[in-house]
Amino acid sequence: MVTSPEPIEAVSQRLDKFLSDQLSYASSLGPEAETMSRAGAASLRGGKRLRARFCLTGWRAVIESSGARDTSLTPAAVSVAAALEIFQAAALVHDDIIDNSDTRRGQPAAHRALEAAHAAAGWTGDAAMFGRSGAVLLGDLLVAWSDDLLEEALADQSTAAATRRFYADMRRDVTIGQFLDVAEESAYAVYPDEEHAERALRVASYKSARYSIQKPLEIGAAFAGADDEQLDALGRFGHDVGMAFQLRDDVLGVFGDTAVTGKPVGDDLREGKRTVLVAFAREALPAPARRTVDELLGDAELDAAQISALQNTIVDTGALARTEELIADYSRRADRALAGARLGDAAVGELRDLARAATQRSS
């Protein structure tokens, strides 16, 4: 059994051990391979460990409901949760390339860190191109690491097949969701304005809600041997919390404090994200003002005054208030999904605490 009483500390310890093994292997291949592996390890520093938290709490919710005397975390459960964190790191590395983001958690994004490593080493060629190419491969390496750790955890486990199924669903959905997000920045123009909010919610569901909370919960529950009823309750709860989580992320992407979020203020506006906030704002604007918004969105050179003008538009049209109402509605629905579910009481209480932390946050 894991001796630490803190689940996230246990996950961090497992990640440290796994990364140490990977770095030891890479060092035997030479300094270039070590540079790549160290960049992978760096990508796992910090963060909320949200997916690990929901995974382990879903696991506990099922274990507690079974009447088991010992509900302590097992090393295998911790490894499954740690694998999710590695997969998250892979997604962020690729996401930052797609979004041309220079920073992540207040530090250089992986492609920028690799670009700097190229320059510092005095190598020939285009450092920026090297950084982007290296980060694409780094993301792939992190996916492989995630698979390796998951399979290690599932060895000789009776629930391995069910766990793999939910893990595969997560990987498929987030990849499709990421593409939908990228596509929507261009595809929105050929769809009626009144459909934009619904399309933004579809992106939020596949890119974030399922991947960030619903699937980690279901993965943990499946690993614990959950039945269909338990999986249904946790799945409905997780999806609605995940939607509220992503909508909060959308709000922070426009209005967040850089000192807290670690990302430039208004970054989503510069990236041209077609979020529900934007859809709601456009619905309320006359055609000329809507065209002005469309011209500004996605301009990487937006200055502080232009960001402020777009923020004011989102507030003045009532789009921010409508989004906050939607967050509250998803949160209420999530809470109802757990009512009467055959799950451990202590874990259910923790799930509700996690839901509040995920949806009422400033970073």
From TrEMBL:
UniProt cofactor(s): Mg(2+)
Keywords for the protein's UniProt record, in alphabetical order: Magnesium, Metal-binding, Transferase
A matching Pfam family: polyprenyl_synt
Metal-binding among keywords: yes
GO biological process, one term: isoprenoid biosynthetic process
GO molecular function, one term: prenyltransferase activity
InterPro entries: Isoprenoid_synthase_dom_sf, Polyprenyl_synt, Polyprenyl_synt_CS
Family statement drawn from the similarity comment of this UniProt entry: Belongs to the FPP/GGPP synthase family.
Protein name, entry field: Geranylgeranyl pyrophosphate synthase
Taxonomic lineage: Bacteria, Bacillati, Actinomycetota, Actinomycetes, Micrococcales
